[in-house]
Amino acid sequence: MEMSYHAYHMVIHSNFETFTIGTRDDGLPFRIFLIDDSPAMTKILSRFLVGFGMEVAGECNESLRAIEQVAPLADKLDFITLDITMPGLDGLTLLPDLIKACPKSKVLMCSAMGDMMRVKKAISLGAKHFIVKPFNKEKLFDVLTRVI
User: Which fold has domain 28-147?
Assistant: First the structure.
């Protein structure tokens, strides 16, 4: 199924902003799987994403187990976030196998290592976008709305 969206919007209420990403064509929220060796990072990402109205379908903090955990959800996922620097397999090594296991999912690389060589390599291997840590919810929202 080709992904598209109904709408995304930013509503400003007094002193705070609410960011909302619309739904898929079937009316369900976009689903995302998080792969990062830092439980603190997956917690932050989850909080932002749920706040955007997305569904976090799962997370994995071990690169060597990522494919086995994400593959059963492949048909239900719209996005996957993938860290580059992880013990075991790094994200750039994992990326091609992840894309094979989940060909319909758009992979967003999230890493503190944002040098141009790594960014170009991630994009050439099939990542849809690259976001450099640390980032705020506004930057994450911007990246997601670009790749929907």
Answer: Rossmann fold (3.40.50)
- DSSP conformation letters of 89-120: S-HHHHHHHHHHH-TTSEEEEEES---HHHHH
Where b means 16+ CB within 10 Å and e means fewer, 17-31 reads eebebbbbeeeebbb
Using DSSP bridges, classify how beta strands 129-132 and 31-35 pair: parallel, antiparallel or unpaired.
unpaired
Q: Domain limits of the chain?
A: 28-147
* Residue partners of 44: CB distance under 8 A and separation at least 6: none
Cβ atoms of 108 and 81 closer than 8 Å: yes
For the chain, helix (H) and strand (E) counts, in that order, are: 5, 7
pLDDT category at 14 given cuts 50, 70, 90 is: very low
Please give the residue that has the higher pLDDT: either 6 or 146: 146
Alpha helices (runs of H) in 32-104, residue ranges in sequence order: 39-51, 66-70, 91-101
Retrieve residue 27's tokens. 């009316």
Q: What are the pLDDT digits (tens) for 111-121? A: 888 788 999 99
User: What distance in Å separates the CA atoms of residue 28 and residue 64, rounded to the nearest whole number?
Assistant: 30
